[in-house]
Design goal:
The complex is a heterodimer of chains A (112) and B (115). By secondary structure, chain A is mainly beta. Chain A is 0% helix and 54% strand. In chain A, the strands form two sheets. In chain A, strands 2, 4, 5, 9, 10 and 11 form a six-stranded mixed beta sheet that branches. A five-stranded antiparallel beta sheet of chain A has the order 1-3-8-7-6, with no helix packed on it. Chain B is mainly beta and 115 residues long. Chain B contains no helices and eleven strands. The chains are: A mainly beta (112), B mainly beta (115). The A-B interface holds A 2, 4, 6, 31, 40-45, 48, 50, 88, 90, 94-105 and B 4, 31, 33, 35, 40-45, 48, 56, 59, 91, 93, 95, 97-104, 106-109.
């Protein structure tokens, strides 16, 4: 059973547009991680957020952890074709990455 | 190699056959995790090890699934009497320590198809 719901499930936008992906849960997590996964590969960690209200920026990607540590968002500015992939959020019950609970995933396609 | 290595990359098994999936973690990584990823879904936790100790196997779906890491390095996930619902990608991840916000590195996975 997935405890983390991501929306949208699929997103297809033109290169240069902005987008936001949401990750919501009824559970509190000590930390939340975002991964990107490409076909035939394992997930690759993008960022970890640990403090309620925390905002982290990674070039054109902005990650936010909700104040109550139950939800998170990923915002991409000026999307590029290289951003195409499956984006997964994952919550950890304790500080660290043990026993991650992954979200349902958002499949992002950037159209040139 | 520098990353987590899994073998085989692809496995086709007849229903009822036993399979063994291998994971070579990054050298020196203490923690090792197994996840199952069904098509179009996020990975789901199966089990994890700290060195050779299996600390949590609560995610293993049935007693047909068994994992071991006898020397605290290479791990094997064994599935007995495979069934169609076992078809999925099995991902292995390793990290330097169990806690402390340490990044987990994933292998490419083994895609198991049960026919």
């Amino acid at each position: 059973t997935q405890l983390l719901e991501q929306s949208p499930q699929f997103l297809s936008i033109q290169e240069g547009e902005n987008l936001t992906v949401y990750c919501n849960s009824s559970s509190v997590f000590s930390s939340l991680q975002w991964y990107r996964q490409e076909p035939g590969e394992g997930p690759v960690l993008l960022v970890t957020v640990v403090t309620g209200g925390e905002v982290k920026k990674l070039k054109r990607l902005t990650f936010q952890f909700g104040d109550a540590r139950k939800d998170s968002s990923l915002h991409i500015t000026a999307a590029q074709t290289g951003d195409t992939g499956l984006y997964l959020c994952a919550g950890a019950p304790g500080f660290g990455n043990e026993k991650l609970t992954f979200g349902t995933g958002t499949r992002l396609t950037i159209i040139p | 190699g520098a990353g987590v290595s899994q073998s085989p990359r692809y496995k086709v098994a007849k229903r009822g056959q036993d399979v063994a999936l291998r994971c070579d973690p990054i050298s020196g990584h203490v923690s090792l995790f197994w996840y199952q990823q069904a098509l179009g879904q996020g990975p789901e936790f199966l089990t994890y090890f700290q060195n050779e100790a299996q600390l949590d196997k609560s995610g293993l779906p049935s007693d047909r699934f068994f994992a071991e890491r006898p020397e605290g390095s290479v791990s094997t996930l064994k599935i007995q009497r495979t069934q169609q619902e076992d078809s999925a990608v099995y991902l292995c991840a390793s990290s330097l320590v169990l806690t402390g916000n340490t990044e987990a590195f994933f292998g490419q996975g083994t895609r198991l198809t049960v026919v």
